[in-house]
Amino acid sequence: MKPRMITVAIMALGGQGGGVLQDWIVQLAEDAGWTAQATSVAGVAQRTGATIYYVEILPDPEPGRLPVLALMPFPGDVDVVIASELMEAGRAVQRGLVTPDRTTFIASSHRVYSMTEKTAMGDGRVDAGKLLDACKASAKTWICGDFAEAAERAGSVVSSALLGALAGSQALPWPVEAFRDAIRRGGVGVDTSLSAFDAGLTLAA
Questions:
Q1: In this structure, which long-range contacts are made by residues 38-41, counting pairs with CB atoms below 8 Å and at least 24 apart in sequence?
Q2: How much of the chain is helix, strand and coil, in % rounded to 5?
Q3: 116 exposed, middle or buried (CB, 10 Å; 0-12, 13-18, 19+)?
Q4: What is 50-109 written as a DSSP string?
Q5: Tell me, what's the pLDDT at 81?
Q6: Are the CB atoms for 37 and 25 separated by under 8 Å?
Q7: How far apart, in whole angstroms, are the C-alpha atoms of residue 195 and residue 183?
Q8: What is the per-residue pLDDT across 37-96, written as a single tens digit (0 to 9) for each?
């Protein structure tokens, strides 16, 4: 029996490498002989170019049959959600993308404050503790750490460390070395990306 389709949603802000992370996941799937489709929808300017990247991957269909793949994640139907910072993780929960019976939820615990938090007359920051509790309660598997700091120490961006966390989660059916190969195939910033990948892998463990 062939494995079923796997759905992955990435919540990221501008400059955090969400599109690169998406490309690496597609590369992983295609290297394994799976079919992959990637889409993205830009969000509002108040979140510094917040974007939802979405990937559906599945084994090759039977000869003569073409799969019909979705363009956006559907609430209750996402296997893996990756958030580049804590507020984006909270937004994923709010949208219903994270469910306790299904979703592996990977998030960086650092914060990039929203415009409403920055412009409040007093302390307008959202309570990080409440965000963390909501995220943990919503997920089947919850992996959280300061992946941005881990990536910065390696001279890379958070997407590389988050890929390491994804590899460590075992939510995708491929060995860790296949993830490293996807980075190498990208051909840009390979050494620093691999270093951040290993840092994220270690942190997730």
A1: 39/71, 39/72, 41/72
A2: 40, 20, 40
A3: exposed
A4: -EEEEEEEEEPPPTT------SS--TT--SEEEESSHHHHHHHHHTT---TTT-EEEEE-
A5: 98
A6: no
A7: 11
A8: 999 988 765 555 789 999 999 987 666 777 888 999 999 999 999 999 998 999 899 999
